[in-house]
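Notes from the 1:1 (GR / supervisor)

We went over the backlog. Supervisor wanted to see one worked example end to end before approving the batch request, so GR pasted a single chain during the call. The sequence is below; no edits were made to it. Supervisor asked that the structure be written out right there so they could see what the output format looks like.
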Amino acid sequence: MPSAADATVLSPEQVQEILRQQQQHKSSAPSTTAAVQHASQSKPRLKTSFAKSRSFEPFYTGGSVAFTPDGSWMATTLSEEVVVTEVKTGNVITKIPGDTEELTSLTLTPSGSHLITASRSLSLKVYSLPEFNLVRSIAKCHAAQVTVMSVDPTSTLLATGSSDGTAKVWDIVGGYCTHVFRGHGGVVSSLCWNMPSPAAEEDSGAGTSASPKAKGKRKSVQGEANVNGGRRIELFSGSVDGRIRLWDLKTRSNATHKPVSTLAGHDSVVRGLSVTDNGKTLVSGARDRTVVIWRLWDGVWRQAETLTAGEGVESVGFLATGSAIGKEGGAGLQTIFWTGGAEGSVRLWSASTGQVICREPQTTSLVAKEKARASDQDAEEDTRAIVEVHYIPAIATIASVHADQNIVMRSVNSRKPLSRTRQLVGFNDEIVDLSLLSIPNDREAKGESHLALATNSAAIRVYTLESLDFNVELLRGHTEVVLCLDRSPDTLWLASGSKDRTARVWAWLPHSRLPKPENAAADSTDVGEKVVRNGSGTGEEASGSSGGEWVCVAVCEGHAESVGAVAFAKRAVTPGALGAPFLVTASQDRTVKVWDLSKLSGLLAGDEVLTAPLKLRSLLTLKIHDKDINSLDIAPNNALLASGSQDRTAKVFSLSYTAPSKANNQTASASLKPLATCKGHKRGVWSVKFSPVDLALATASGDKTVRLWSLKDYSCVKIFEGHTNSVLRLQFASAGMQLFSSASDGLVKLWNVKDEECVETLDGHEEKVWSIVVRKDESEIISAGADSVVNIWEDRTVADEIEKAKEREELVEREQDFSNFLTLKDYRNAIALALSMNQPRRLLNLFSNVANSRPEGDAATSVGLLLESALRGESMNASSLSEDKSSITGLKAVDQVISQLGPSQLIQLLSTCGTAQTILHAILRLHPAQSIIEAFEDERKREEKSRLERLAMEEEEEEEEEGAGGKKKEEEEERRKKAKKSSNTKGFGSKVDLAGTIDAILPYTERHYARAERTLIESAMLEFTLSSMDSLLGGEEDDDEEERREIQGRMEEDHVPANHAVDLVNRRDDSVSLESGDEEEDDQAGGQEEDQMEEEEIFS
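Structure output shown during the call:
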C-alpha cells in the first residue's frame, strides 16, 4: 500500500485551509488573472463544474455515401436521417430528418447543387444545396424500394434502379419521369451514364482500331448523333441476372420498350459499371469474381477481355483522363481503373494490359503473420468488405466505404498511389472500454495524445485527439470482440482482452523497427507491380504521428474462456523503466493469471527489428471467484490486487512479484494470497478501484450504489447513492478526494468522498455509460457508452470561479454607479442601470421618491393634463411638461427620461408591470402606440438575428483547429458566453412578446376600473338612501326654510338686522360642506394607501 514516501496525504482540515487561503488571495489579488495563476498552482483542488468541449458522434450506419465535387463534404445515411459531415474535421454540418423509414439510397449531383434521397417508403426527395431545403418530393417513385441512383454529368437527369426490375429517368428540376426502362431480370443493381461530348467522341481512344469502312460507318453514326442533338445520351444498367443493358434516351421508339443492346458477360450480380469520357470503353465488375472490359467496335459493344479479380467486385471506375501510375496512363489517356470488393482492398488496373498495376500498401508482417494464422475468419472478412468506392478527381482521392462503417481515403497521385491519408469511423457501435495513450516522441510535449476504444468489434480503434479531425487507426489482431482495455503507467503500452480467450499488448513502434510490408500473394491472373511505401505510408497517415504505428508486440494465451478484465502493474520495478513489470488478466473461467513483461520491456527498450509478437509466460493461475470476473485493479504500490465479480463480492489479495535477476536465475515469480472478501452489495460488482493516496477501495455494483471500503479492517465506511441504475465504472480524482462514477442511467456523477455529496452530474449519453477515463492532469474526462458516442468533458471549475468573481466586481461597480447617478440626479442613467441590473425594487424606490417629492396640489394638475390629453387622443411629450408640478411621475426630468427610452429599455420597463399605473400612464402618454408596437417587433427581429449569429458562431468555433492556441480559445469561449448571456438576459424578462406584456398589464388596470366602478355603485346607493330618507322626513329645503324663519323671528325679537340672519344660515351650510369634503378626503387617502400597497406588491 502507499506509504509516506509514495504520496502526500492531506487531511480534510488541510484541504479546507488551502481553499480558504485561495479565497483570501483572490479577494486581495489586484486582478482575476493572478487569481487564475494561484488557483492553477494550488493542488489538489476540488472540482465542481464540467462542460462538454467535444464529442465523437456516429454519422454513418451503413448504406449509401456521396461526396461533393470538391470533396469537402460527404452525405451519409444514419438510419432514417441524412448526415452531412465535413470531411476534413469530421464535424457534422447538418442532419436532415427522414420520414421514419430507413434510407435505401442517396446521391449528390456532379455540380453539387442538389442532394437526392430515397427511402423504404418509396418516396424520392430532392434537397437544394447548401441550404438543404426540400424542393421536391415524389411520393411513390417505384413499385418497390430504390436500390441505386445515378446523376448524369450535366446534373439535369436522375436515373433510379429499383427492386421491381425497372429503371426510371427523372428530370431533377421539373420532378417528372421522362423514361421508364423495363425488362431487367430482377433487381437493378448498377447504373452508369454514357454521355460523351462530340469532341471527345471524335477521339478514337486507346485500342479502338477499325477498318476504313468501319470508320466511315462510325462517322455516319456520329453525324446522325450530331443531327439529333450533337450528343449521345445513353444509360447502362446492370441487374442480378448478370446482364448489362444499354438504353438510348434519344430514340423514342425504344425508350420504353427494349434496350439497344444486351451485354452478357457475367454469371452473377453486376455491381460496378464505368465508361470512359469518350464513350468507347466500358468496364464492369460482378460478384462472380470477374472484371470484364468492353469496347465499342463498329458501333457495337463487344467483350474485349475477362479478368479474374479473385474477389467479389462491388465497385469499379475509371480515373480521370491524364492520370498516370508508373508507366501506365499519361496525358490524353484514360486507361487506369480501380476495383473494390469483398477482400476490403482497392486495386488499380490497366485497361490496356489487363493487369493490376497497384495495390494498397500492406500492413507489416508483424501483424500479417497473425492474420495468416487466423485466415479462416470469414466474419472478419465480411465486416472489412468494400461496399462502395467513390473517386474525387478534384483532390485525387479514392474513398472506400467498408461494411464495418469505416470510410478510408486514399491518394491516387503518382508519388504515393493508394497510400492512406485519412480514415473515418462512421459508427463505433457499443463502446465498452476506453484508454488514454501517448507515443514516446511526443509524450513530454503532447501528453496523452491518443484514445483507444474497445467496441463491439475485433478491431481496436485509436483516435488521434490533438488533430481534431476524427482520424482513426484500426488495430487488428484479435479474432473476436474486444472486451476490456488498460494502459501501462507510462501510457506507452496498451493491453486488451477479448472473447478469443487471449490478451494482447500493443505499443507504438517507429518504422525503423518494423519489417517491410510483404507483397500480397498473387494468383496466375492477378499480377502487377506492388507499390511499397518509402519511410511513410499506412502507419504514418493512420496514426497521425510521423515515423511509426501501433502494432501488437505480445500475446497472452492460456485462458479457457473470454478475457473480461486486464490490469497493468501501477509502478515500475526500477524508476524510468519502460512499460510495466507484469500484467494480470481475468477470465470467465473464474481464474486470474499473472504474466511476466520483463522480457518484453527489454525487447522494446532495444532497437532491433521485431518480426513477430512475443509469446508471454504465465507466472501463476488461481481461481478466485464463483462467477464471471468483471473488473481488476492493482494498488499504486503493486502490493494488492482487487477483483469484482458477478457473485456480488469484491476480493482483496496480497500480490507479490519478483523480477528476474541473477539471484533467481533470471526467472520471474509471483504469488497471490487472499486477504479479505468485501460483502454488502446486492448485485454483481462491475468495477473496483484503489484510492491513489488513502487506504481505501471503491466498488460499483448493479444495486445502484458505490461503496467505499477501509483497507485497515475491510469494513464499508461510506455508501454513495444517487444513480437510478447499475453503476458500471469508477475513477478517482483530486488526489483521492473525489470520485467519478458512470452508470446505466446514462449519467456521469462526481462525488466528494468526505461528505458523500454529488457535486456534479454530467448528462451527455442516451444509453448506459460503460467507461470513463481521466487525464493525468485532470483537465478533462472522457466518457463513452452504448450509444456509440464519446464525450470529452472539460474542467470548468477555475473558469467558473473567475467568471463569478468578475460578476461580483461588476455588480459592486454598478451599485456604486447607481448611487452616484442618484446623487447627481442623472435619472436617465440611473433608470437604464437599474433595468440592466434586473433590480425592479430600485426602480420602485426611485419612482416612489420622485412621487413623494411632488409639490402639494400638483397631483390634480397632472391628472387634469392626463385627462385632457386622453380626451384629445394625443400623446404628451417632454416639451409640454414645462414644470415639475405638471409632470406625470412627479419630476420633469423623470418624464423626459421615460419619453426618450429606447425600444429595448421600453420593453423591459413594460415587461415589469411593476411601475403600476403612474408609470404606465407616463409610458402610454409619452410614447405613441405605434412606436411601442414597432419597438417590440424590432426587438423580436434583433433577438432572432442574434440567435442565428450565435449559432453560426458556435459552429465556426467547433470547426476551428486546436492549433489556434489556448488563449485564443479562452477568449472565444468567453465571448460566446457573454453573447449567450446578453441574449438570454433581457432585463426583467427575456421573452419579447407584446401580447404577453399586455396580458400581464391588463389585470392591474382592470383592478383599478373595478374599484372605480365599485365606488360609483356605492355612491349611487348612498344617494338613493339619502333621497329616501328625505322623502320620509321631509325635504332638506323645507327644513332649511323653516330653520331660517325661526332664526329670523328670534333675531327680530332681539332686534338683529336681517342680513346677519342670512350670513348665519350660510355659515351653517358651509360647515356641512366642509364635513362632507373631509369624508371625501378620507376616501381618497384610503384609495392612495391601497394603490401604494399594490405598487409594492407588484415590484416585489
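Supervisor's comment: Residues 574 and 581 are 9 Å apart (CA to CA).
Batch request approved.
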